[in-house]
Amino acid sequence: MKTTLLLISGALLLHTTSLNAQQQTAEPCGQVEYQKQLEQQHPGFREQMDRVYRMASDYANGVSLRKNIVADTVFTIPVVFHVLYNNNAENIPDSLIYSQLFALNRDFRKRNADTTSIRTLFRPRAADTKIQFVLAAKDPSGKATNGINRVSTTKATFGSFNLNDDMKFSSRGGTDAWNTAKYLNIWVCDLSVQNIDALLGYAYPPVDAPNWNSGSFPPSPEHEGVALHYKIVGINNPRATGSLASSRNGRTAVHEVGHFLGLRHVWGDPPNGVSGCAVDDGIDDTPLCASQSSFDCNKSRNTCNTGAGDEPDQVENYMDYSAHTCQTMFSKKQMNIMRFCLVTFRSSLYQAEISSDTFISGIRMFPNPSVDGIITVEIEPALLGKHRYFLTLTDMNGRLILDAEPCIQMSQRLDLSRFSRGTYYAELRDENGNIAVREKLLRF
Ligand SMILES: [Zn+2]
Question: Which residues surround ligand 1, an ion (CB under 5 A)?
Fold first, then answer.
């Protein structure tokens, strides 16, 4: 396969590859260039991002004691799509947004039918990340919304040589983010550069801004989110033709949200001049590989020989540049990275649901997981009028922590902060011993 490198203005490097001159495939992702840009604007960005990634990969590899704590929790992230349009074509229909959301949930929850094409070697590593997405139901002012924010713009394109993030600011022809601590913001806009559809998306990685290195200044949170080219949003977008034809199954967004949640490309993005096999993505269930796939599905590809136990490149991974029809999995350690980054650096972005048994409705325990160890037990007044409730709490070893503590108020504070981090089991019973709620509580 012939690979062409296209250098525009020396700033934004866009790769294209082609089977022939007529059939070109655009690079899906401007992530590496975007990060270089952020480093220029915010010196220390790269170091901060690397620090966060080391913490996340340590966790993913099981070095951290927190291993598996969050395994059963489903994290649900509210999403707002900002559709910025300069013409009718860019004002993409709701149906494409809905199908994009479907594609995110299909792939993050491992509900994609094409997992059958994952090689036997890698199939046990494919993860249901238990991260899912809903369209925001309320806007930042509390008003009902369908999660789609349409804004007309006079700007012809938001694609630029230096990935300047104009789409994220009303003052620059875009539209301001909704509180990035509460929503995943996805800006859908024209990302073409000089009429070339080579840049399809990029994402803001977790950098733990509150702990920014002294002496440098953190980027503002208004930048956080994902930018997508309007032509590749959703499934079977009618604009995804020609060079974009292989980007019709919504997987550019899957890849970019992976970056947003802390993932790197499977080849580790080595700096210029460094051998690809010298740099890894830091986790061992995505085999060491030297470079990106060439937008194909070459399952005999093996770019780094690691000796005993050597494995081929995992071209099935969403974080490679293989053909989108070839990309069918996140690995379990990638899942760990994303879940760690969510809980640690984007902790107000999601709602957590634990698989638990609720025998009667009207009782809630939240937040769960709890970062500071404080959990509120809320009981509806109508229930308190009929019963008295008692709370029992045990740790993972079955040790009793609280024994039949009366819960007689509508809102009761449960303080786990003095206990070590981990999983606890709460049982709320009425005065007759009938279980009302059994819940797994997570204390981070
Ligand atoms: Zn990427």
Answer: 29, 31
> Which residue spans of the chain are classified as CATH 2.60.40.10?
361-443
Residue 361 CA to ligand 1 center (angstroms) comes to: 43
How many Å lie between the centroid of ligand 1 and the Cα of residue 297? 17
Greatest CA separation found in the chain? 77
Residue span(s) of the chain under CATH 3.40.390.10 come to 28-259+331-345
Half-sphere exposure of 225 (CA within 13 A, CB side): 30
Average pLDDT, the chain: 85
- The whole-number pLDDT of residue 394 equals 76
Tell me, which fold does domain 28-259+331-345 have in CATH? Collagenase (Catalytic Domain) (3.40.390)
Q: pTM of the prediction?
A: 0.77
Question: At residue 424, does pLDDT exceed 90?
Answer: no
Q: Tell me the C-alpha distance between 20 and 433, whole Å.
A: 73
Q: Distance from the CA of 294 to the center of ligand 1, in angstroms? A: 13
* Catalytic residue annotation: 256
Backbone angle region of 137, left / alpha / beta, with phi > 0 → left and psi within -120 to 50 → alpha: alpha
Token digits of residue 281: 């993505």
Condensed to tens digits (0 to 9), the pLDDT of residues 347-362 reads: 789 876 655 556 677 8
- Does pLDDT of 217 surpass 90? no
CATH class, 361-443 region? mainly beta
